[in-house]
Amino acid sequence: MRTLGLIHGMSPVSTVDFYEGVNARVNEVLGGNGSADMLLASVDFANVDHWVQAGAWDELRAHLVDKAVSLAAAGADFLAIGSNTGHIAADAIGGAVDLPLLHVGDVVAEEAAARGARTLGLLGTSVVTELPFYRNRLESHGLAVLTPSADDRAFAHRIVFGELSHGVFTDESRSELIRIMRGLIDAGAELIVLGCTEYGLLVADTDAPDIPRLDTNEVFMDAVSRAILEEPAR
After folding, report:
1. Edge-to-edge strands of the sheet including 38-42?
2. CB 189 within 8 Å of CB 119
3. Structural domain for 210, as ranges
4. Are residues 129 and 185 both part of a single domain?
5. DSSP assignment letter at 232
6. What CA–CA distance (Å, rounded) separates 174 from 151?
7. What is the DSSP string of 37-58?
8. pLDDT, tens only, 25-76
9. What are 151-190's pLDDT values in tens digits?
10. Global pTM?
11. Are 137 and 181 in the same domain?
């Protein structure tokens, strides 16, 4: 088993879901009392909110790099960022820490290809849908990426920081997010990427089951769990 160095806290709600999900997957393989060997560096989500609203990307990246350095020093064998938004720091972390970083964009691209999808409809915070880092990662795998209108992007961002990160899941927001998903399908998307770890907690598989969607939290937990169960490099 390898030791995961996990950067999360974005938000605490999805961090709990991620921690439980990874341990459940590892236990399915190991059985008994088996669980994941994991180090967690959890950020203060209020700081992340502040930097995002201010567009202070250098400060956000630097903070996440500091977390990665601390995990490397603590003995992690590889790193993962449990938040799609947090992947804004992926390249900076790769340049600062001599450890492999499992990137959610690569995992999403691999899963999309396995499902035969080439055009993705991307939902996420404004960091994910409006800055180039996430789109570029998907496009590097030969995928086309569609995003919602400016108003719909603002809504998808607002509910993450104002509702979902506080454990608030309303029927109104669920219906609105499904409307946005349908709009992307109508625009030509073959698969909706729920590019925020809280969206899958709001919109279940049983909600609008006719809309093909990829919950990044679920597929990333799968990939992280498989990586944990690999033999460490000697």
Report:
1. 38-42, 4-8, 78-81, 101-102
2. yes
3. 105-216
4. yes
5. P
6. 16
7. -EEEEE--HHHHHHHHHHT-HH
8. 999 999 999 999 999 999 999 999 999 999 999 999 999 999 999 999 999 9
9. 999 999 999 999 999 999 999 999 999 999 999 999 999 9
10. 0.95
11. yes
- What is the domain count for the chain? 2
Q: Do residue 72 and residue 129 come from a single domain? A: no
* Closest to 162 in 3D by CA, of 198, 203, 215, 138: 198
List of long-range contacts for 148-155, beta carbons under 8 Å, 24+ apart: 148/121, 148/123, 148/180, 148/183, 148/184, 149/183, 152/180, 152/183, 153/126, 153/129, 154/126, 155/180
Q: Residues 168, 91: one domain?
A: no
Is 136 part of a structural domain of the chain?
yes
Residue pair 183/145 in contact by the 8 Å Cβ criterion: no
Q: Which CATH number do you get for residue 144?
A: 3.40.50.1860
Strands 119-123 and 78-81: unpaired
Whether residue 95 sits in one domain with residue 181:
no
In a domain, 234, yes or no: no
Angle at 33 between CA 29 and CA 36, to 5 degrees: 60
Domain shared by 128 and 198, yes or no:
yes
